[in-house]
Amino acid sequence: MAPKYTILKVLIHNSSKGHNSKQGFTLLELIAGLVMMVIVSSLALNAFVNASTSFNKDKRNIESNQNLTAVLEIIGNDIRQSGEQINDPQFPVIKIEPAATGDMSGSSKITIRRALTSPLTLCEDIAPTFAATKITVTDDTKTSFANCLPGTPVTVGAIVRPAPLKEARDKRCQLDDPNGDYSSPTTTDFCLTTKPTLPDPDLEQVLAAVSDQAGNMRTFKYVDDGGTTTPSKYQIDITGLSPDPTTTYITGKPIYLIEERVYTLASDGSFKLNIDNKGAATLIKGIAQFKVSARVYGDKTTKNPDAIDPASTIVGTTNVLPLSRRCVSTIPYYICQFNNATVDDWKTLQGVKVELDAKYDSTGRASESSTNPGDIAQVAKDKEKLKAIAEYFPRNVLSK
Questions:
Q1: What are the distances in angstroms from CA 384 to CA 57, 269, 356?
Q2: What is the pTM of this model?
Q3: pLDDT tens digit string along 332-376?
Q4: How far apart are CA 305 and CA 343, in angstroms?
Q5: Contact 117, 168 (CB under 8 A)
Q6: CA-based angle 328:333:338, to the nearest 5?
Q7: Residues contacting residue 154 through CB under 8 Å, at least 6 positions apart
Q8: Angle 229-232-234 (CA atoms, 0-180°, nearest 5)?
Protein backbone atom coordinates (compact mmCIF):
# COMPACT_ATOMS: atom_id res chain seq x y z
CA MET A 1 0.00 0.00 0.00
CA ALA A 2 2.96 2.36 0.67
CA PRO A 3 3.78 3.09 -3.01
CA LYS A 4 0.36 4.63 -3.46
CA TYR A 5 1.41 7.65 -1.36
CA THR A 6 4.83 8.25 -2.88
CA ILE A 7 3.81 10.99 -5.33
CA LEU A 8 1.66 12.77 -2.74
CA LYS A 9 4.55 12.74 -0.23
CA VAL A 10 6.92 14.19 -2.79
CA LEU A 11 4.53 17.00 -3.63
CA ILE A 12 3.97 17.86 0.02
CA HIS A 13 7.68 17.73 0.67
CA ASN A 14 8.50 20.03 -2.27
CA SER A 15 5.77 22.43 -1.26
CA SER A 16 7.03 22.64 2.27
CA LYS A 17 10.59 22.93 1.12
CA GLY A 18 9.87 25.91 -1.12
CA HIS A 19 7.65 27.75 1.32
CA ASN A 20 10.31 30.29 2.24
CA SER A 21 11.85 30.48 -1.22
CA LYS A 22 11.13 33.15 -3.88
CA GLN A 23 8.76 30.85 -5.79
CA GLY A 24 5.02 31.90 -5.96
CA PHE A 25 3.49 35.39 -5.25
CA THR A 26 3.90 37.78 -2.42
CA LEU A 27 0.94 39.36 -0.66
CA LEU A 28 1.67 42.69 -2.31
CA GLU A 29 1.66 41.11 -5.75
CA LEU A 30 -1.66 39.40 -5.07
CA ILE A 31 -3.21 42.68 -3.94
CA ALA A 32 -1.87 44.53 -6.99
CA GLY A 33 -3.22 41.81 -9.28
CA LEU A 34 -6.57 41.93 -7.57
CA VAL A 35 -6.75 45.71 -7.96
CA MET A 36 -5.93 45.45 -11.68
CA MET A 37 -8.54 42.77 -12.12
CA VAL A 38 -11.17 44.97 -10.42
CA ILE A 39 -10.25 47.94 -12.64
CA VAL A 40 -10.44 45.89 -15.83
CA SER A 41 -13.73 44.30 -14.73
CA SER A 42 -15.18 47.72 -13.89
CA LEU A 43 -14.20 49.08 -17.28
CA ALA A 44 -15.71 46.07 -19.02
CA LEU A 45 -18.89 46.31 -16.93
CA ASN A 46 -19.16 50.05 -17.56
CA ALA A 47 -18.76 49.50 -21.29
CA PHE A 48 -21.45 46.80 -21.20
CA VAL A 49 -23.83 49.02 -19.23
CA ASN A 50 -23.26 51.95 -21.61
CA ALA A 51 -23.82 49.74 -24.63
CA SER A 52 -26.96 48.26 -23.07
CA THR A 53 -28.27 51.73 -22.13
CA SER A 54 -27.57 53.06 -25.61
CA PHE A 55 -29.26 50.05 -27.18
CA ASN A 56 -32.35 50.38 -24.98
CA LYS A 57 -32.47 54.13 -25.59
CA ASP A 58 -32.28 53.64 -29.36
CA LYS A 59 -34.89 50.90 -29.14
CA ARG A 60 -37.29 53.13 -27.18
CA ASN A 61 -36.54 55.97 -29.56
CA ILE A 62 -37.33 53.83 -32.60
CA GLU A 63 -40.50 52.41 -31.03
CA SER A 64 -41.71 55.86 -29.98
CA ASN A 65 -41.00 57.33 -33.40
CA GLN A 66 -42.76 54.40 -35.06
CA ASN A 67 -45.81 54.96 -32.85
CA LEU A 68 -45.84 58.70 -33.60
CA THR A 69 -45.44 58.02 -37.31
CA ALA A 70 -48.24 55.44 -37.29
CA VAL A 71 -50.61 57.91 -35.62
CA LEU A 72 -49.63 60.61 -38.10
CA GLU A 73 -50.40 58.27 -40.97
CA ILE A 74 -53.90 57.63 -39.60
CA ILE A 75 -54.55 61.37 -39.48
CA GLY A 76 -52.93 61.82 -42.88
CA ASN A 77 -55.20 59.29 -44.55
CA ASP A 78 -58.24 61.08 -43.15
CA ILE A 79 -56.98 64.46 -44.36
CA ARG A 80 -56.29 63.07 -47.84
CA GLN A 81 -59.84 61.68 -48.04
CA SER A 82 -61.56 64.73 -46.57
CA GLY A 83 -64.29 66.25 -48.70
CA GLU A 84 -65.05 63.14 -50.75
CA GLN A 85 -68.27 63.64 -52.76
CA ILE A 86 -68.70 67.15 -51.31
CA ASN A 87 -68.50 69.90 -53.93
CA ASP A 88 -69.76 72.63 -51.62
CA PRO A 89 -66.65 74.79 -50.98
CA GLN A 90 -68.22 76.37 -47.87
CA PHE A 91 -69.04 73.08 -46.17
CA PRO A 92 -66.75 72.66 -43.11
CA VAL A 93 -64.90 69.65 -44.51
CA ILE A 94 -61.88 70.47 -42.32
CA LYS A 95 -62.17 72.50 -39.16
CA ILE A 96 -59.09 73.48 -37.12
CA GLU A 97 -59.59 75.18 -33.78
CA PRO A 98 -57.94 75.57 -30.37
CA ALA A 99 -58.25 72.75 -27.87
CA ALA A 100 -61.55 72.60 -26.03
CA THR A 101 -61.89 73.11 -22.28
CA GLY A 102 -60.53 70.05 -20.51
CA ASP A 103 -58.12 69.15 -23.30
CA MET A 104 -54.38 69.89 -23.40
CA SER A 105 -53.86 73.63 -23.21
CA GLY A 106 -52.21 75.14 -26.28
CA SER A 107 -53.01 72.18 -28.51
CA SER A 108 -55.27 71.95 -31.55
CA LYS A 109 -58.50 70.16 -32.35
CA ILE A 110 -59.23 69.03 -35.90
CA THR A 111 -62.53 67.81 -37.33
CA ILE A 112 -62.43 65.98 -40.67
CA ARG A 113 -65.52 65.14 -42.71
CA ARG A 114 -66.24 63.23 -45.91
CA ALA A 115 -69.44 62.07 -47.60
CA LEU A 116 -70.26 58.38 -47.81
CA THR A 117 -72.60 58.62 -50.81
CA SER A 118 -73.93 61.07 -53.34
CA PRO A 119 -75.98 63.76 -51.56
CA LEU A 120 -79.69 63.60 -51.02
CA THR A 121 -81.78 66.73 -51.54
CA LEU A 122 -83.72 68.66 -48.95
CA CYS A 123 -87.25 68.89 -50.34
CA GLU A 124 -88.88 70.95 -47.60
CA ASP A 125 -87.81 74.06 -45.73
CA ILE A 126 -86.27 73.58 -42.29
CA ALA A 127 -86.87 76.62 -40.14
CA PRO A 128 -84.91 77.27 -36.91
CA THR A 129 -87.86 75.87 -34.94
CA PHE A 130 -88.06 72.64 -37.00
CA ALA A 131 -88.50 69.71 -34.62
CA ALA A 132 -90.02 66.95 -36.76
CA THR A 133 -88.58 63.44 -36.86
CA LYS A 134 -88.93 63.07 -40.64
CA ILE A 135 -87.31 65.01 -43.49
CA THR A 136 -88.62 64.93 -47.08
CA VAL A 137 -85.91 64.03 -49.62
CA THR A 138 -88.05 63.46 -52.75
CA ASP A 139 -91.24 65.25 -53.76
CA ASP A 140 -92.48 65.47 -57.35
CA THR A 141 -94.56 68.53 -56.49
CA LYS A 142 -91.32 70.53 -56.22
CA THR A 143 -91.03 70.84 -59.98
CA SER A 144 -88.71 73.85 -59.78
CA PHE A 145 -86.11 71.70 -58.00
CA ALA A 146 -84.95 68.98 -60.37
CA ASN A 147 -83.16 67.07 -57.61
CA CYS A 148 -86.42 66.72 -55.70
CA LEU A 149 -88.07 64.79 -58.53
CA PRO A 150 -88.15 61.01 -57.93
CA GLY A 151 -86.06 60.06 -60.95
CA THR A 152 -85.45 56.41 -61.81
CA PRO A 153 -87.05 54.17 -59.19
CA VAL A 154 -85.28 51.12 -57.75
CA THR A 155 -87.30 48.15 -56.55
CA VAL A 156 -86.22 46.09 -53.56
CA GLY A 157 -88.80 43.44 -52.79
CA ALA A 158 -92.12 45.27 -52.70
CA ILE A 159 -90.53 48.65 -51.92
CA VAL A 160 -89.77 51.19 -54.63
CA ARG A 161 -87.31 54.02 -53.96
CA PRO A 162 -85.62 56.71 -56.04
CA ALA A 163 -82.01 55.86 -56.91
CA PRO A 164 -80.36 58.45 -54.58
CA LEU A 165 -82.40 57.27 -51.62
CA LYS A 166 -81.60 53.64 -52.45
CA GLU A 167 -77.85 54.45 -52.41
CA ALA A 168 -78.16 56.25 -49.08
CA ARG A 169 -80.25 53.48 -47.59
CA ASP A 170 -77.76 50.80 -48.66
CA LYS A 171 -74.94 52.64 -46.95
CA ARG A 172 -76.97 52.72 -43.75
CA CYS A 173 -77.91 49.06 -44.07
CA GLN A 174 -74.29 47.99 -44.53
CA LEU A 175 -73.63 49.04 -40.96
CA ASP A 176 -75.92 46.20 -39.95
CA ASP A 177 -74.61 43.63 -42.43
CA PRO A 178 -71.61 44.67 -44.59
CA ASN A 179 -72.04 41.59 -46.76
CA GLY A 180 -75.75 41.96 -47.36
CA ASP A 181 -77.01 42.22 -50.94
CA TYR A 182 -79.60 44.97 -50.63
CA SER A 183 -80.13 45.21 -54.39
CA SER A 184 -81.68 41.77 -54.74
CA PRO A 185 -85.43 41.38 -54.14
CA THR A 186 -84.86 37.73 -53.20
CA THR A 187 -82.47 38.51 -50.34
CA THR A 188 -83.84 38.82 -46.84
CA ASP A 189 -83.59 42.49 -46.02
CA PHE A 190 -82.13 42.72 -42.52
CA CYS A 191 -82.31 46.48 -42.79
CA LEU A 192 -86.10 46.25 -42.43
CA THR A 193 -86.61 43.05 -40.47
CA THR A 194 -85.23 41.63 -37.25
CA LYS A 195 -81.88 39.95 -37.76
CA PRO A 196 -81.81 36.56 -35.97
CA THR A 197 -78.70 37.50 -33.96
CA LEU A 198 -80.05 40.91 -32.92
CA PRO A 199 -82.95 41.63 -30.55
CA ASP A 200 -84.29 44.67 -32.44
CA PRO A 201 -84.41 45.84 -36.05
CA ASP A 202 -82.93 49.00 -37.50
CA LEU A 203 -79.94 49.37 -35.20
CA GLU A 204 -77.97 51.05 -37.95
CA GLN A 205 -77.61 54.83 -37.99
CA VAL A 206 -75.66 57.21 -40.21
CA LEU A 207 -74.54 60.73 -39.33
CA ALA A 208 -75.93 63.25 -41.82
CA ALA A 209 -75.77 66.99 -42.34
CA VAL A 210 -77.92 69.42 -44.27
CA SER A 211 -75.92 72.39 -45.62
CA ASP A 212 -77.07 75.91 -46.44
CA GLN A 213 -74.00 76.16 -48.76
CA ALA A 214 -72.89 79.26 -46.87
CA GLY A 215 -70.87 77.60 -44.12
CA ASN A 216 -73.76 76.53 -41.85
CA MET A 217 -75.10 73.03 -41.29
CA ARG A 218 -77.42 71.04 -39.07
CA THR A 219 -76.43 67.49 -38.26
CA PHE A 220 -78.68 64.56 -37.39
CA LYS A 221 -78.79 60.77 -37.37
CA TYR A 222 -80.47 59.13 -40.36
CA VAL A 223 -81.95 56.06 -38.70
CA ASP A 224 -84.48 54.62 -41.15
CA ASP A 225 -86.63 55.19 -44.22
CA GLY A 226 -89.73 57.12 -43.25
CA GLY A 227 -91.86 55.76 -46.07
CA THR A 228 -94.08 57.88 -48.28
CA THR A 229 -97.05 60.14 -47.82
CA THR A 230 -97.80 59.97 -51.56
CA PRO A 231 -96.48 57.53 -54.17
CA SER A 232 -93.76 60.01 -55.17
CA LYS A 233 -92.90 61.66 -51.88
CA TYR A 234 -90.21 60.02 -49.76
CA GLN A 235 -88.95 60.83 -46.30
CA ILE A 236 -86.21 59.63 -44.01
CA ASP A 237 -86.50 59.16 -40.25
CA ILE A 238 -84.10 61.31 -38.24
CA THR A 239 -83.11 61.90 -34.64
CA GLY A 240 -80.82 64.27 -32.77
CA LEU A 241 -81.19 67.28 -35.09
CA SER A 242 -78.66 69.89 -33.97
CA PRO A 243 -79.97 73.42 -33.30
CA ASP A 244 -79.49 76.49 -35.47
CA PRO A 245 -81.54 79.38 -34.12
CA THR A 246 -80.85 81.77 -37.00
CA THR A 247 -80.74 79.89 -40.31
CA THR A 248 -83.57 78.56 -42.46
CA TYR A 249 -82.48 75.70 -44.72
CA ILE A 250 -84.48 75.97 -47.89
CA THR A 251 -85.67 73.37 -50.38
CA GLY A 252 -82.99 72.26 -52.83
CA LYS A 253 -80.04 72.25 -50.40
CA PRO A 254 -77.87 69.11 -50.15
CA ILE A 255 -78.02 66.49 -47.41
CA TYR A 256 -74.73 64.66 -46.98
CA LEU A 257 -74.34 61.30 -45.30
CA ILE A 258 -71.02 61.90 -43.62
CA GLU A 259 -68.28 60.33 -41.58
CA GLU A 260 -66.93 62.78 -39.00
CA ARG A 261 -63.58 62.16 -37.30
CA VAL A 262 -62.38 64.42 -34.48
CA TYR A 263 -58.80 64.33 -33.16
CA THR A 264 -58.00 65.88 -29.77
CA LEU A 265 -55.33 65.68 -27.06
CA ALA A 266 -56.64 65.13 -23.54
CA SER A 267 -55.02 66.92 -20.61
CA ASP A 268 -53.45 63.64 -19.41
CA GLY A 269 -51.52 63.26 -22.69
CA SER A 270 -53.87 60.73 -24.29
CA PHE A 271 -54.33 61.38 -28.00
CA LYS A 272 -57.94 60.54 -28.91
CA LEU A 273 -60.10 59.90 -31.97
CA ASN A 274 -63.89 60.26 -31.89
CA ILE A 275 -65.80 58.92 -34.92
CA ASP A 276 -69.33 60.24 -35.51
CA ASN A 277 -69.57 61.37 -31.89
CA LYS A 278 -69.79 57.77 -30.67
CA GLY A 279 -67.15 58.16 -27.97
CA ALA A 280 -63.42 58.90 -28.05
CA ALA A 281 -60.85 56.09 -28.28
CA THR A 282 -57.20 56.55 -27.26
CA LEU A 283 -54.68 56.09 -30.10
CA ILE A 284 -51.49 56.80 -28.16
CA LYS A 285 -50.45 58.07 -24.73
CA GLY A 286 -47.64 60.31 -23.53
CA ILE A 287 -48.18 63.23 -25.93
CA ALA A 288 -47.27 66.76 -24.82
CA GLN A 289 -48.59 68.84 -27.74
CA PHE A 290 -50.75 68.37 -30.83
CA LYS A 291 -50.56 71.19 -33.34
CA VAL A 292 -52.42 71.51 -36.64
CA SER A 293 -52.14 74.34 -39.15
CA ALA A 294 -53.61 74.92 -42.59
CA ARG A 295 -51.45 76.10 -45.47
CA VAL A 296 -53.50 78.47 -47.59
CA TYR A 297 -52.85 81.22 -50.05
CA GLY A 298 -54.69 84.48 -50.40
CA ASP A 299 -56.36 83.09 -53.51
CA LYS A 300 -56.18 79.97 -55.65
CA THR A 301 -53.81 81.53 -58.21
CA THR A 302 -50.87 82.24 -55.90
CA LYS A 303 -47.96 79.97 -56.80
CA ASN A 304 -45.19 81.70 -54.87
CA PRO A 305 -46.32 82.39 -51.29
CA ASP A 306 -42.83 83.54 -50.33
CA ALA A 307 -43.41 86.61 -52.47
CA ILE A 308 -46.06 87.81 -50.03
CA ASP A 309 -44.80 90.56 -47.79
CA PRO A 310 -44.47 88.81 -44.40
CA ALA A 311 -44.86 92.09 -42.52
CA SER A 312 -48.04 93.12 -44.31
CA THR A 313 -51.07 93.95 -42.21
CA ILE A 314 -53.37 94.60 -45.15
CA VAL A 315 -56.68 92.79 -44.79
CA GLY A 316 -58.66 91.73 -47.83
CA THR A 317 -55.96 92.41 -50.39
CA THR A 318 -55.29 89.64 -52.89
CA ASN A 319 -52.76 87.06 -51.72
CA VAL A 320 -52.39 88.57 -48.24
CA LEU A 321 -53.45 86.88 -45.00
CA PRO A 322 -53.91 89.20 -42.01
CA LEU A 323 -51.48 88.89 -39.11
CA SER A 324 -54.34 87.93 -36.83
CA ARG A 325 -54.80 84.64 -38.67
CA ARG A 326 -51.19 83.53 -38.97
CA CYS A 327 -49.65 80.96 -36.65
CA VAL A 328 -46.42 82.96 -36.80
CA SER A 329 -46.52 86.59 -37.85
CA THR A 330 -43.56 86.25 -40.23
CA ILE A 331 -44.98 83.18 -42.00
CA PRO A 332 -47.91 84.41 -44.10
CA TYR A 333 -49.37 81.16 -45.40
CA TYR A 334 -49.96 78.96 -42.31
CA ILE A 335 -53.01 79.62 -40.15
CA CYS A 336 -53.86 77.81 -36.91
CA GLN A 337 -57.63 78.22 -37.20
CA PHE A 338 -59.60 77.16 -40.26
CA ASN A 339 -63.41 77.12 -40.60
CA ASN A 340 -63.65 78.04 -36.94
CA ALA A 341 -64.61 81.67 -36.35
CA THR A 342 -64.38 82.38 -40.09
CA VAL A 343 -66.03 80.55 -42.98
CA ASP A 344 -63.19 79.36 -45.22
CA ASP A 345 -63.26 77.90 -48.71
CA TRP A 346 -61.76 74.46 -48.06
CA LYS A 347 -60.80 74.17 -51.72
CA THR A 348 -58.10 76.80 -51.17
CA LEU A 349 -56.23 74.39 -48.90
CA GLN A 350 -52.74 73.60 -50.13
CA GLY A 351 -51.84 71.37 -47.22
CA VAL A 352 -52.54 70.54 -43.58
CA LYS A 353 -49.50 70.31 -41.30
CA VAL A 354 -49.70 68.05 -38.24
CA GLU A 355 -47.19 68.10 -35.38
CA LEU A 356 -47.01 65.66 -32.46
CA ASP A 357 -44.60 66.20 -29.55
CA ALA A 358 -43.98 63.32 -27.17
CA LYS A 359 -44.36 64.03 -23.47
CA TYR A 360 -41.15 62.14 -22.73
CA ASP A 361 -37.84 62.02 -24.54
CA SER A 362 -36.02 58.82 -25.46
CA THR A 363 -34.52 58.57 -21.94
CA GLY A 364 -37.95 58.62 -20.32
CA ARG A 365 -37.58 62.14 -18.91
CA ALA A 366 -40.42 64.64 -19.02
CA SER A 367 -39.80 67.06 -21.86
CA GLU A 368 -42.43 69.76 -21.59
CA SER A 369 -41.09 73.21 -22.36
CA SER A 370 -40.30 75.50 -19.45
CA THR A 371 -42.05 78.84 -19.16
CA ASN A 372 -38.64 80.35 -18.44
CA PRO A 373 -36.78 81.00 -21.72
CA GLY A 374 -33.49 81.07 -19.79
CA ASP A 375 -33.95 77.54 -18.48
CA ILE A 376 -30.83 76.01 -20.06
CA ALA A 377 -31.53 72.54 -18.67
CA GLN A 378 -35.01 72.54 -20.18
CA VAL A 379 -33.70 73.76 -23.52
CA ALA A 380 -31.31 70.81 -23.55
CA LYS A 381 -34.20 68.46 -22.79
CA ASP A 382 -36.31 69.93 -25.55
CA LYS A 383 -33.58 69.14 -28.05
CA GLU A 384 -34.02 65.47 -27.18
CA LYS A 385 -37.81 65.65 -27.36
CA LEU A 386 -39.37 63.20 -29.77
CA LYS A 387 -41.32 64.99 -32.46
CA ALA A 388 -43.17 63.92 -35.61
CA ILE A 389 -44.18 66.41 -38.30
CA ALA A 390 -45.90 65.78 -41.63
CA GLU A 391 -47.98 67.73 -44.10
CA TYR A 392 -50.83 66.23 -46.12
CA PHE A 393 -52.73 67.41 -49.16
CA PRO A 394 -56.56 67.05 -49.21
CA ARG A 395 -56.76 65.65 -52.72
CA ASN A 396 -60.47 66.47 -53.13
CA VAL A 397 -59.69 70.20 -53.35
CA LEU A 398 -59.02 69.40 -56.99
CA SER A 399 -62.53 68.03 -57.57
CA LYS A 400 -64.94 70.15 -59.57
A1: 12, 18, 14
A2: 0.74
A3: 678 899 998 888 889 889 899 999 998 866 555 555 554 455 555
A4: 21
A5: yes
A6: 85
A7: 160, 161, 162, 163, 166, 183
A8: 55
